[in-house]
Specification:
about 60 residues, alpha+beta, 2 strands, about 10% strand
Length: about 60
């Protein structure tokens, strides 16, 4: 399982990771850079939100 946020300033994945791992979830990884970093690296994105063409919100800074 991969947990991530929008960008590195979002704390949700920071809190989700230990919650999952201490509740018997295995193979959990946290992608610190968030979806912005993923997209900027040119990595593939899929899913209903992406396919709808809805623009991403501004970074949470």
């Amino acid at each position: 399982m991969l947990v991530y946020c929008y960008d590195p300033n979002c704390p949700a994945s920071k809190y989700a990771y230990p919650l999952l791992t201490t509740n018997d979830f295995e193979n959990v990884r946290r992608y610190v850079g968030g979806i912005l970093d993923w997209e900027e690296a040119g990595l593939p994105v899929e899913g209903a939100w992406f396919e709808s063409g809805t623009p991403a919100p501004e970074a949470t800074k």
